[in-house]
Structures are given as structure tokens and as C-alpha cells.
């Protein structure tokens, strides 16, 4: 779309039911504002909460004309034929023996002929039998090795429908090993592999985040401030990626941050509650997100700081790791690492 002067500052498309910031004149779709801020609109450019509808401004006539033109040139919708019904493949009939599965008390099934040597009824029971003891010990290295061994041993076995009754406390993608990259950032931030730096004269928070969010499970990563850091950072998560990266993610209702002045921030650029310790350019901050329970917690130099927040909103993905930097600040990050056992034990209490 060409620049008409009536684009939404959030979605960068022609603003629909346009709302205008009375302080700086920025324009937004009404739906974009509602999705991000709810009823309490806030301008991402100047943080003003004063808005008026374009229908109450002198721009209404010009806006209506552009809106009409944009609707005229829209291509007509082509009715697509209904999708073909999927072909269901015939599966080989499963043969169950008279002997009970070794997990019979949980699954109530007999041994499947495919797994006669393992004496289980299904692939899920096989995994449960081999890995559950390691989960209880939090031995993640052995878990990974055992999964590799199991995958190699069952290559020629036909997979069976997933059995959902086995009460695993942690599923295999929920053991705290999470890989991601910081690859989206506000202007001025530089990203070099695992090192992120902001150096500028302005005193405005800028956010760096990942373009891919967590969907489920338990996740743990570390942020290590660089010695050149002169200003505190805001470190945490966001449940949305629809905001201006030239602002701090925790200024919005969907952003949750440990502000390293010793505060926790959510939906505000000025207020928060006391949490954790104060630091600037030393130590290591661990971030622990449990999407099973909707809990966010932090650790500093290996010491658990307690649960920062618990919310149903943190149970649903995508959830994006974020850091907001100010003026001159930088950090390295580590991911794909297991949760330290002492932190996990305190977190689960």
C-alpha cells in the first residue's frame, strides 16, 4: 500500500475506524488499540492516553475518500472449491497378547506384539518406563541419551496411537531446554550472535526480542550484562509481538519484566513492585517460564528470587523472550541449557 498519511502506527496499514492521538497526532486502527491495550488506549509514540475519533476531526472527508478508493481497488474474492475429503490410510491391525503391560495399573492394556521384547502396550508406555525415573531425578543429560537410544531401537516398529492416560509430570518438550534467537530489535540495537548492544545518545528504552515464541512447556535461559552497561535493563517476556520496538515491552499490559533496579514491571513505564535485587553490569540473571502453571520467576547468580507473577495468560503461546535496553547497555544470553536443580526444586515448592 502507498503512503496515504492515514496508516496505523501499529499494523502500518490503512487505519480502520481510525483513532488519533490528541498529543502527537499519531493514528491507529481502533481494533489494534483494543487488542493491545484493552479499554485504556496508550500512544506508543508519546504515551498519551487522549484519543479522538477521526470522525470528529477535520481530516474526516479526506480519510473517507481514501477509504472508499482502497475498497474499490480491492480484488474480488474468488470462491474456492470445498477441500477434498482426506484419504484415511489403513493401519496394520494391532495384536495384543494375554500378558499384561508392565504399566498395566495406569494404562489397563495388555502387551502389544510390536513391543513384545519391551513388555509394554505402546510407544508411550515404553517412553514412560524408561524416562520417568530420570525425570524424577532431573537428570537431563541421561534423558536426552535415553530418547536417542529409544528412537534408534524403534525405527522399524510401527508407531501406535498416543495413549493419553499416562500421568507424566513433565512431557519430553517440557524439561527446561529451550533454544531461540534474539532477531528483532528497535533501531540502534546491534545483534552479533549471542551478544546484544545498544549505544546511543538518546535515553529511550528499545526492545530486542525473538520472532518465534514459546508455545508450551517449561523454559529457562540466562541474561549476562556486559561490563560496558551504564543503565539498568528490563528483562522478561511478552505475550504479543504487536508493539513498537522503540519502546519497552513491559510498558504494555502484555509485557512482564524484571527491571534491574529491583522491581517487577507490567503494563507501566513508571510503576512496579519491589522484587529481587538491584544490579547493572555484573552477574547472571536466570529466567524461568512455566507455561504449564502460568508462572514466571527469576534467579540471580544461582539464587532463586521467588515467583514474580502467576497468570492464566502465561499458559498460552506464543510467548516471546524480551530485553529492553536504555542509552548504553548490552548483554550476552544463553539458552538451550537445563534448569539448575536447586532452582527447580525451590520453584516447584
From TrEMBL:
It comes from Paramecium pentaurelia. PANTHER family: SPRY DOMAIN CONTAINING SOCS BOX PROTEIN, SPRY DOMAIN-CONTAINING SOCS BOX PROTEIN 3. InterPro entries: B30.2/SPRY, FBXO45-Fsn/SPSB_families, SPRY_dom. This is B30.2/SPRY domain-containing protein. It comes from the Eukaryota. PROSITE patterns: B302_SPRY. Residues 135-342 form the B30.2/SPRY domain. It holds the Pfam family SPRY.
Amino acid at each position: 500500500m502507498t503512503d496515504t498519511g492515514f496508516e496505523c502506527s501499529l499494523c502500518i496499514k490503512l487505519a480502520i475506524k481510525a483513532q488519533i492521538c490528541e498529543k502527537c497526532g499519531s493514528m491507529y486502527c481502533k481494533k489494534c488499540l483494543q487488542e493491545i491495550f484493552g479499554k485504556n488506549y496508550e500512544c506508543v509514540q508519546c504515551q498519551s492516553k487522549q484519543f479522538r475519533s477521526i470522525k470528529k476531526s477535520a481530516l474526516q472527508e479526506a480519510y473517507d475518500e481514501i477509504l472508499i478508493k482502497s475498497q474499490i481497488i480491492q480484488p474480488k474474492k474468488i470462491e474456492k472449491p470445498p477441500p477434498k475429503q482426506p484419504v484415511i490410510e489403513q493401519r496394520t491391525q494391532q495384536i495384543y497378547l494375554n500378558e499384561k503391560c508392565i504399566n498395566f495399573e495406569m494404562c489397563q492394556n495388555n502387551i502389544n506384539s510390536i513391543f513384545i521384547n519391551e513388555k509394554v502396550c505402546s510407544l508411550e508406555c515404553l517412553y514412560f518406563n524408561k524416562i520417568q525415573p530420570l525425570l524424577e531425578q532431573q537428570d537431563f543429560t541421561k534423558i536426552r541419551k535415553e530418547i536417542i537410544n529409544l528412537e534408534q531401537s524403534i525405527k522399524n516398529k510401527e508407531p501406535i496411537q498416543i495413549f493419553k492416560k499416562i500421568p507424566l509430570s513433565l512431557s519430553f518438550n517440557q524439561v527446561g531446554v529451550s533454544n531461540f534467537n534474539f532477531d528483532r530489535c528497535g533501531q540502534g540495537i546491534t545483534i552479533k550472535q549471542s551478544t546484544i548492544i545498544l549505544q546511543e545518545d538518546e535515553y529511550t528504552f528499545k526492545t530486542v526480542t525473538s520472532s518465534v515464541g514459546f508455545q508450551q512447556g517449561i523454559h529457562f535461559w540466562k541474561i549476562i550484562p556486559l561490563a560496558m552497561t551504564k543503565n539498568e535493563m528490563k528483562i522478561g517476556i511478552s505475550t504479543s509481538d504487536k508493539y513498537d520496538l522503540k519502546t519497552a515491552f513491559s510498558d504494555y499490559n502484555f509485557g512482564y519484566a524484571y527491571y534491574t533496579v529491583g522491581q517487577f514491571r507490567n503494563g507501566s513505564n513508571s510503576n512496579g513492585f519491589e522484587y529481587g535485587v538491584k544490579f547493572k553490569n555484573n552477574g547472571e540473571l536466570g529466567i524461568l517460564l512455566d507455561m504449564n502453571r502460568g508462572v514466571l520467576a527469576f534467579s540471580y547468580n544461582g539464587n532463586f528470587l521467588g515467583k514474580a507473577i502467576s497468570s492464566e495468560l502465561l499458559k498460552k503461546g506464543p510467548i516471546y523472550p524480551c530485553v529492553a535496553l536504555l542509552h548504553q547497555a548490552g548483554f550476552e544470553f544463553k539458552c538451550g541449557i537445563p534448569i539448575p536443580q536447586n532452582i527447580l526444586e525451590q520453584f516447584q515448592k
